[in-house]
Design a protein that fits this description.
Layout: H1 2-12, E1 13-17, E2 33-37, E3 43-53, E4 59-64, E5 68-70, E6 73-77, E7 86-89, E8 107-116, E9 122-132, E10 139-142, E11 147-149, E12 155-159, E13 170-179, H2 185-191, E14 196-201, E15 205-207, E16 220-229, E17 232-236, E18 240-244, E19 260-261, E20 263-264, E21 270-273, E22 276-283, E23 289-296, E24 304-311, E25 315-322, E26 334-339, E27 345-352
Parallel strand pairs: 11-18, 19-22, 21-27
Antiparallel strand pairs: 1-2, 2-6, 3-4, 3-5, 3-8, 4-7, 8-9, 10-12, 12-15, 13-14, 13-16, 16-17, 16-18, 20-27, 22-25, 23-24, 23-26, 26-27
Length: 355
């Protein structure tokens, strides 16, 4: 009779797991599933979870829900429908986070579920493979760390945290403080009253408006981005610093007519260069740094003759690249090229001037 009852119960409840196999980080995501009750009445069920480390085949986490009633038909289940969920832990990998709403340890796992109807009598069993990737916090972009900028209204830009799938309502908070003499940047962010602290930013940038608290030249500032999920802090970026300085005054006039205009794509113009290559570039992508290459386009394999990095500021840039002595041949064509943050290729063709 017990066997018959078990078979009937098994036939009355089915489970479909809806846990994403890759990118799971939050424990609440482990309980996304659908239970289907084919009986003619509501059934009480309890769900148990064992999370096994794939390398050691040892359990690192177990979870048990309260008993809930499943009405006839299909029911979508989430962690909020099952709480409070009782967790127990084993292994060093999970010692750092026992928060029921916290993160899972990084690694590869097998999550095995059982559904029972009391007396620890399982009626459904199912397992799924999971890979928990490390989460990348927001990455700061501009102003560059320890940069010297010439404007009191900078544009702050950053990259989003990953994986994006773990955030249901992603926004950002920017914290900007002054770093006092003798103070570290981390202490400044923790202790000083913010010059600006704005939350619920939906974009990946903030234009520091003139209506905000003014920035002064000669002062050091620190800033950080906090990623928010449903209005709650989820991940924090590094802390970067910058200083507002007065643009240098040159006693020598610059002949901008000698600067060659970079072109986008394959429409590279042809110019003549002397000991250095002078180029003009509009930095609409707001990059702080780009990496360039110079290749010999008439030689087999287009060998790289010279490469390096260029520091940029937003807007118009006048750049001078010294050409390596002895690396270039007269009457040959060379291609200067870099790719900006928008994945646009900017380049110019040139030939060395006669000696």
């Amino acid at each position: 009779m017990l066997i018959l009852i078990g078979m009937m119960s098994h036939a009355q409840i089915s489970m479909t797991l809806q846990v994403p196999p890759v990118g799971v980080l939050v424990k609440n995501q482990l309980w996304n599933m659908m239970l289907v009750n084919t009986a003619s009445r509501s059934l009480p069920v309890r769900i148990n979870l064992v999370l096994l480390d794939q390398k050691t085949n040892q359990p690192v986490l177990t979870g048990t829900t309260l008993t809930i009633m499943i009405d006839k038909g299909a029911k979508q289940i989430q962690a909020k429908d099952l709480g409070p969920i009782q967790y127990s832990y084993s292994g060093a990998a999970v010692l750092g986070d026992h928060d029921p709403n916290g993160l899972l340890p990084i690694g590869s796992y097998q999550a095995c579920y059982t559904v029972d109807q009391g007396a620890d009598r399982p009626v459904v069993e199912n397992c799924i493979q999971l890979v928990v990737d490390p989460m990348s916090p927001p990455l700061l972009n501009t102003p560059a760390d320890e940069a010297r900028i010439y404007t009191t209204n900078p544009q702050f830009t950053w990259l989003p945290p990953t994986p994006a799938g773990i955030f249901s309502d992603l926004s950002y908070s920017l914290v900007l403080v002054e770093v006092l003499p003798g103070q570290g940047k981390a202490d400044a962010v923790e202790q000083n009253i913010p010059i600006y602290s704005g939350g619920l930013i939906r974009n990946l940038y903030l234009n520091y408006a003139s209506s905000f608290a003014g920035l002064d030249t000669g002062r050091l500032y620190a800033w950080r981005i906090v990623a928010m999920n449903n209005g709650l802090p989820a991940a924090m970026s590094e802390i970067w610093t910058f200083k507002v300085t007065t643009p240098p005054k040159s006693s020598l006039s610059v002949d901008y007519s000698t600067y060659l205009e970079l072109r986008r794509g394959l429409d590279a113009s042809l110019a003549t260069a002397g000991k250095s290559l002078n180029i003009a570039y509009d930095n609409a992508a707001a990059d702080s740094l780009v990496h360039y290459t110079i290749t010999g386009i008439q030689d087999a394999g287009n060998p790289v003759v010279q490469q390096g990095s260029l520091s940029l500021r937003r807007g118009r840039n006048w750049l001078t690249i010294p050409l390596n002595k002895g690396a270039y041949s007269q009457n040959k064509l060379y291609l200067f090229q870099f790719t900006n943050g928008r994945n646009e290729s900017w380049n110019i063709k040139f030939t060395p001037a006669s000696k």
